[in-house]
Amino acid sequence: MVKVTLVFAVLLIALGLVGYLGTGSLHPTALIPSWIGIALGFGGLLAISPNESRRRLFMHINVTIGVIGFLGGFVEAVRGYLHAQAVGLAPDRIALTDKLAMSALMLFYVVLCVRSFVQARRSGKV
Question: Does this model's pTM top 0.85?
């Protein structure tokens, strides 16, 4: 799962950069997926260890970052959409797409992690 974590970290960093550049570098909050990706990547690098308890600890921290990233992105996407509708404006498509993409990536990552944790538990490795 460490390699998967690092792949998702790179994807999130790229997503944040694309969102930031897609807004003409006007909205630094578009870099939020990049910051989450950096945190995930840092946790993934710390999880590279022959010590199983250390690896387990950092992978659980990473899945927690994933859950927070999913919830934060999804809630903000819904909030931004509803706010735009309430004031009679079209929602910012780049921001909405960026938030939903981050949420989808994080949800997929969390599901993969949970499946891995369950498989490890069933196989007796934990």
Answer: yes
